[in-house]
Design brief:
Length: 315
């Protein structure tokens, strides 16, 4: 209670809430109040799965705590035609570490349009928040972070953009920087850091191998590259975004390719069949954003109340 970093953390949380609402209100994107439970997790077990779901028993009915409410944002876009967003907790089944929380705050949005549209708006959102930090909290942030040059440097130039294939070529396909699976690849934290050293302070890394991302990410005309992007800044990936399948048949084929039963996503397929819509979305881990702002190396310190799977905490 006496640590000045936590007083600043409260100020940062308050600022993100306020400025997120201001950013989206200016773009006529609507806030949704969504549940924290779901029967349709966005990272099911299968190829491209990047998290473990948290299953609970809710009055005798197996359900999941929300790992993301992206699917309901896609639904929301079919009602709010200018797009929609939320800022709420997400739950993951992995152990916590320096860059992962099992419960974290998620700033997610879905808008009409494609990958370029969502990259532009996500980049603008991060710049909007960064400008607000400098305007409202420059002195305390500078004291904790040892300066604010990392923030002003980010604002001073456009964000670098490169494809995953370009990144592999740039880093010579090193095993230190990439993991190679059966027909698809992923980048390591070391690889993310090296790209930021070479091309930073921020890098949009786009067009991952299709099977390395969840089924809901649309793909290019070859069917081999996903229409997705990660924003690398500070600790690594802070924002993930992508274009969605417009047609039900596309989503069905992707489910099959990723080894996920279409039966579990029947409502999602019916939604796309009944009202096809071209949308894209992004999600930002709020505590990872704080890691970058405060130049802090352990996301577990950036919770006011610690939560870890399998650990009983009070309060």
């Amino acid at each position: 209670m006496d640590d000045p970093m936590y007083a600043s953390l409260v100020d940062l949380q308050d600022l993100v809430n306020y400025e997120t609402a201001a950013f989206w209100r200016a773009r006529r994107v609507k806030a949704l109040h969504l549940p924290v439970t779901t029967s349709s997790i966005s990272s099911p077990m299968g190829l491209g799965s990047d998290s473990l779901p948290v299953q609970v028993d809710l009055f005798g009915i197996p359900t999941y705590l929300a790992d993301s409410m992206q699917f309901l944002l896609e639904y929301g876009c079919r009602i709010a035609d200018t797009g929609c967003y939320y800022l709420m907790p997400s739950f993951r089944g992995e152990e916590t570490d320096a860059t992962h929380l099992s419960q974290f705050f998620h700033s997610e949005a879905e808008i009409p349009g494609g990958l370029d549209d969502v990259i532009d708006v996500a980049d603008a959102y991060l710049r909007h928040l960064t400008e607000a930090v400098l305007r409202e909290l420059e002195a305390p942030v500078a004291q904790i972070a040892g300066g604010v040059e990392h923030l002003t440097d980010f604002l001073a130039k456009p964000t670098t953009r490169m494809t995953f294939d370009d990144a592999v070529a740039t880093l010579d396909g090193s095993d230190e920087y990439f993991e190679f699976h059966d027909g698809w690849r992923t980048i390591t934290r070391a690889g993310e850091r090296r790209l930021m050293e070479l091309h930073g302070p921020a890098v949009w890394l786009t067009h991952f191998d299709q099977l390395s991302v969840p089924f809901y990410q649309a793909h290019d005309n070859t069917g081999l590259k996903a229409l997705n992007a990660d924003l690398l800044i500070g600790p690594g990936e802070v924002i993930g975004c992508g274009e969605r399948h417009t047609e039900a048949a596309q989503a069905h084929n992707a489910l099959t390719a990723h080894g996920v039963s279409p039966d579990d996503y029947d409502w999602y397929l019916r939604m796309k069949k009944d009202k096809p819509l071209h949308t894209s979305g992004f999600g930002m881990g709020v505590e990872r954003f704080f890691m970058w702002v405060l130049r802090h190396d352990d996301v577990r310190d950036l919770q006011l109340l610690e939560r870890a799977n399998g650990v009983l905490t009070t309060p």
